[in-house]
Amino acid sequence: MRTEYEFVLPRGYLEETGTLHKRGTMRLATARDELEPLRDPTITGPDDPRLTILVLTRVVQTLGTMVLVTPHEIEGLFAADLAYLQDFYGVINFGNDAEIEQMLAAQEERPAPVTTAAAKTAEPEEGAEATAPAPATPINRRAAIQEVPSGSR
Q1: 52, 146 in Cβ contact below 8 A?
Q2: Is 27 exposed, middle or buried (0-12, 13-18, 19+ CB in 10 A)?
Q3: Are the C-beta atoms of residues 69 and 57 closer than 8 Å to each other?
Q4: The whole model's pTM is what?
Q5: Residue 133, pLDDT score
């Protein structure tokens, strides 16, 4: 049984030193991983947004070269990366094998960022027909940060 999964963050965690960490590993959550953060005195209840931070801190095993991931690092993620980890957590813990494989494949197919130089269109060669640039592939964006519905657990 597979209990640990590699992920690639869309943007990456940027350390104060300027080091960017994009790859990491997340393990499957246990019941304790979801219950222990509720005992934290700073958590006001199951709807407390900080609960997500504490749960992710427990299950994210590595982030780049960091082998100890603390709430400080999870709180320092860009919003897109936090949303990605929430989705990743939901899929590996509550999804079926097909959904897990689809998510793993999708993170490897993620297109590289377009640079300003690459975004400029080249002049067509003389006598060549000008073509319109290919339409951009739509990116799956979340409308809002959402918790995994309790009915799917």
Answers
A1: no
A2: middle
A3: yes
A4: 0.72
A5: 45
